[in-house]
Specification:
The complex is a heterodimer of chains A (about 350) and B (about 270). Helix content of chain A is about 25%, strand content about 35%. The chains are: A alpha+beta (about 350), B mainly alpha (about 270).
């Protein structure tokens, strides 16, 4: 299986997108805020946009080389592209959509469990069905590379989990170099072997999802991964711990080393909530009034004035939490990571 | 005050409507249906009908054949001077038909710009059916261009991108994606252009003359019959009104169907997900 290699520069309105990446038999997710240039990367690989400099190659096939003036047309590259909103041909049936690029559709329709929709037009499909048609169509020409642009964005929240699991299995099964673009870190972490955080056209960090969560390169990556990111001042404390002052009165302990201005990174799911400060191994107990409670699936995000905690819906019910009530947020010093101020 | 103003608006609308409909109604009130059919059987009418259908068909085929790819090109490509080209294409819309006739003479007449070349080839265009066809093409093509360019521009560019990543050549994208998706708009533009072409009078009269059975189209026949046989003129006019009304109704119904189908698919999409 050939790997995809790219090293390119794409001028954008307010910045130059610079990206070097090698993708083997794996799924790499590019995440970042909208306007970071993620879609442009996919378009450049597919031949729909022309980089200013650099090279794009798949195995021993050079698809683009600015210096040697190589620029293969989109139809001459072997790319399966799942577009944002899927871009299904509205005037063609599911079967005609899938077989548009040539080849027979029935195998793929069966594989993606949409054979019963073969004669249906895209306007009559649900979001999840459309996604499967788009994937089947992208795979119909047996591409060497699969590109997915926000494949989860057009889905309802309640079908998302199931569709994500199916897409995960499919990507593993295909074993193709795949690049997935998303603005949602959770989707990226669930679907990809490696995640790259793209901000203003530059890759801030590239690594396994656990790596990004465990040791984010900078406050932005941490925030994007869903962490609470809080500014403050660090100083050395007793027993090898660092004392971190959030503001005048609040202080937390961290097992990381830092001095001076720094940021505290703590994930919402590492924080537990209680009515009274528990007597346990957690060193950090911060008291605060609940600002809001938002249920997300089977979890509840509880916003306090200085941070957000994520607990199970069952726990939230047991504690009978209401906005305006005072709770204690606890987390261990080892879960309080410190990064240099960004 | 308010009621007075609304009454004023309603009165203006009623006046406009009456003014527009009165002449149309007058034609049908003046000609009993039986006479109408009888007049259509006259030689003059029959010959004019044949000339009109023949020249319109040829002219319209040429407009569709050349205009469709040209409109696609202009809709999809961005090049310096595109704005100027789009404006030039619409010029015949604002020209008086007589000017169009003179312009065609200046280009294709015996002493015109291409006169020497055409003479050398033994081709004479003015006062022939070819002249009628050229005049019709000249006046109707901007109508088609306008609608066709808008129809092609309305196609979602991502669909074209998707087709290309699926290996489709530009020609295949045109045939399988652009043409079917623009079909509605192309059809409407084609109908409007055809109606304009059938009604063409001024440029044809100047450039092709009004020879019965050769260059005398239906509108020219109306003019010719005007002081000879007013009833025949009325009958042909009635024919035009019927064809025009049918055309408008078709476009309306089509537009309504299109809207209904979009509406249906929206509802289906939102309820099935």
């Amino acid at each position: 299986m050939a790997s995809l290699r790219l090293d390119l520069s794409l001028p954008r309105r307010s910045f130059d997108l610079e990206l070097a990446l090698e993708v083997g038999r794996e799924t790499v997710a590019l995440v970042g805020p909208s306007g970071a240039g993620k879609t442009s990367v996919l378009r450049a690989i597919a031949g729909l946009a022309r980089p200013a400099r650099g090279t794009i190659a798949c195995g021993d096939e050079v698809w683009f080389d600015a210096e040697r003036r190589v620029h293969r047309r989109p139809e001459e590259r072997s790319v399966g592209f799942v577009f944002q909103e899927y871009a299904l041909f509205p005037h063609l049936t599911v079967e005609q959509n899938v077989s548009f690029g040539g080849g027979r559709a029935d195998g793929l329709l069966r594989r993606l469990r949409i054979e019963h929709l073969a004669r249906v037009k895209p306007s009559q499909l649900s979001g999840g069905e459309r996604q499967r048609v788009a994937i089947a169509r992208a795979l119909a020409r047996s591409p060497r590379v699969l590109l997915l642009d926000e494949p989860m964005a057009a889905l309802d929240p309640h079908t998302r989990g199931k569709v994500r699991a199916e897409l995960h299995d499919l990507l593993r099964e295909l074993g193709l170099p795949a690049i997935l673009v998303t603005h949602d870190f959770e989707d990226a972490a669930a679907l990809a072997d490696r995640v790259g955080v793209l901000v203003d056209g530059h890759l801030r960090q590239l690594g396994a999802p656990a790596e990004l969560l465990g040791s984010p390169a900078d406050p932005f990556v941490a925030e994007f991964a869903g962490a609470n990111v809080i500014d403050g001042i660090a100083e050395s404390g007793s027993e090898g711990l660092t004392r971190f002052h959030l503001d005048g009165e609040r202080t937390v302990y961290s097992a990381d080393e830092a001095r001076g201005r720094a940021v505290l990174v703590v994930y919402p799911w590492d924080i537990s909530l209680a009515r009274l400060a528990p007597d346990d191994s957690a060193l950090n107990h911060l008291e605060g009034e609940i600002v809001s409670l938002v249920q997300v699936g089977n979890r509840v995000r509880v916003r306090l004035p200085f941070l957000t905690a994520e607990i199970t819906a069952a726990s939230a019910e047991r504690l009978a939490l209401r906005p305006g009530e005072v709770v204690v947020a606890s987390f261990k010093a080892t879960q309080a990571r410190l990064l240099p101020a960004g | 005050m308010r009621a007075l103003f609304v009454a004023l608006l309603a009165a203006a609308t009623a006046l406009a409507l009456a003014f527009l409909l009165l002449p149309v109604a007058a034609i049908f009130l003046r000609v009993p249906p039986g006479d109408l059919l009888g007049a259509l059987g006259h030689n003059v009418t029959r010959e004019a009908l044949v000339v009109s259908i023949k020249t319109s068909a040829i002219a319209h085929a040429a407009v569709l054949l050349v205009g469709t790819p040209a409109a696609y090109f202009l809709a999809r490509r961005r090049f310096p001077g595109r704005g100027a080209v789009l404006t030039l294409i619409e010029l015949p819309l604002v020209l008086p038909p007589a000017v169009a006739g003179i312009a065609l003479f200046a280009a294709f007449g015996r002493a015109g710009l291409l006169g020497d070349q055409l003479n050398a080839l033994g081709i004479q265009i003015p006062f022939t059916q070819t002249a009628v066809v050229l005049a019709v093409i000249f006046v109707e093509s901007p109508f088609y261009f306008r609608g066709a360019i808008a129809a092609f521009e309305a196609i979602d560019g991502t669909l074209v991108d998707a087709a290309r990543t699926l290996g489709a050549s530009p020609a295949r994208v045109f045939a399988r994606i652009a043409l079917p998706l623009a079909a509605g708009g192309l059809g409407a533009a084609s109908a409007l252009a055809l109606a304009r072409g059938l009604g063409e009078f001024g440029a044809t009269l100047i450039f092709a003359g009004s020879l019965q059975g050769v260059t005398q189209t239906l509108p020219l026949a109306i003019y010719a019959q005007f002081d000879q046989d007013f009833d025949t003129a009325l009958a042909i006019s009635a024919l035009f009104i019927i064809v025009g009304a049918l055309l408008l109704v078709t476009l309306r119904v089509y537009g309504w169907l299109r809207f209904a189908s979009i509406f249906r698919s929206r509802v289906a999409a939102s309820t099935s997900s």
